[in-house]
């Protein structure tokens, strides 16, 4: 707790706001479904696009379902799918980057050219083609969005790793006979953790926006469940009336992504060992 307090105290105001927003949506994703007043797909209001009331704090949607309940459930899909895909992308990308930097030679060349080929494909086009071809199950959405952002993480992680590999302490470790696994995990990786954490945050933001875009096109999480992007798409007809059913999920996406960006920008760089 003292380390978290020290971390929070060292953050600027923008970073504290960002941390608060991120923690808020993480808490909503964790406990929100248990707090939802109605089942996610239940038709509970005879009116559609009704305004805020004591019974429906965020109104009802285009089918008379409780927006608050659907928002609490939708946040879980958006946050956990985004975080899971970002974590998977960073794990795969960083592993390949460490392999390329430590091994060098033809291994580095092959991996770099493969990632260059993959990154040349627009992320949204790749995701749309894969979802259209194989469907939009949660596992497939997780895999597609992770694969889409592996090359970007690889390029950043490789640049960091190649720089660290050139340091004297890595040369000394090689001279005393340490293996490549030791070099990668004990010498190189600890000196690139902070930039990788910042990159993880950026990947999370990109993936949330990509998932929201796919859901807006009807290719994301499927009914009766929905993520935040799906809530925006299905309630588009309420935009003219300014219905909370479309405004609230749009604000939710904005606060989640802006909060993550504020937190990333506020993180201080860590000194490299050398």
From TrEMBL:
The keyword Cell membrane applies. Coiled coil: none annotated. Keywords: Cell membrane, Membrane, Transmembrane, Transmembrane helix, Transport. The chain crosses the membrane at residues 77-104, 125-150, 156-175, 196-222, 242-264. It is a multi-pass membrane protein. One of its GO terms (cellular component) is plasma membrane. PROSITE patterns: ABC_TM1. Residues 75-264 form the ABC transmembrane type-1 domain. Pfam families: BPD_transp_1. One of its GO terms (biological process) is transmembrane transport. It is found in: Cell membrane. Its main location: membrane. The keyword DNA repair does not apply. Belongs to the binding-protein-dependent transport system permease family. This is Binding-protein-dependent transport systems inner membrane component. It comes from Novosphingobium aromaticivorans (strain ATCC 700278 / DSM 12444 / CCUG 56034 / CIP 105152 / NBRC 16084 / F199). The lineage of its organism: Bacteria, Pseudomonadati, Pseudomonadota, Alphaproteobacteria, Sphingomonadales.
């Amino acid at each position: 707790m003292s380390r978290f307090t020290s971390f929070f105290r060292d953050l600027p105001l923008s970073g504290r706001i960002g941390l608060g927003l991120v923690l808020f949506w993480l808490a909503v994703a964790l406990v929100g479904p248990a707090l939802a007043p109605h089942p996610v797909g239940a038709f509970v209001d005879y009116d559609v696009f009704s305004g805020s009331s004591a019974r429906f704090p965020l109104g009802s949607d285009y089918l008379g379902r409780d927006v608050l309940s659907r928002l609490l459930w939708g946040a879980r899909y958006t946050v956990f799918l985004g975080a899971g895909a970002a974590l998977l992308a960073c794990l795969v990308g960083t592993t390949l980057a460490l392999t390329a930097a430590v091994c060098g030679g033809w291994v580095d060349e092959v991996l770099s050219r493969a990632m260059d080929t993959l990154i040349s494909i627009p992320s949204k086009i790749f995701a749309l083609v894969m979802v259209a071809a194989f469907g939009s199950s949660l596992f497939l959405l997780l895999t597609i969005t992770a694969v889409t952002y592996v090359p970007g993480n690889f390029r950043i992680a490789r640049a960091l790793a190649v720089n660290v590999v050139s340091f004297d302490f890595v040369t000394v470790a090689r001279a005393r006979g340490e293996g490549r696994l030791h070099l990668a995990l004990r010498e190189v990786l600890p000196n690139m953790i902070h930039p990788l954490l910042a990159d993880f945050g950026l990947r999370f933001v990109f993936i949330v926006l990509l998932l929201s875009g796919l859901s807006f096109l009807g290719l994301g999480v499927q009914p009766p469940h929905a993520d935040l992007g799906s809530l925006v798409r299905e309630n588009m007809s309420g935009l003219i009336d300014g219905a909370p059913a479309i405004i609230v999920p749009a604000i939710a996406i904005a606060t989640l992504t802006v909060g993550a960006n504020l937190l990333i920008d506020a993180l201080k760089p860590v000194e490299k060992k050398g």
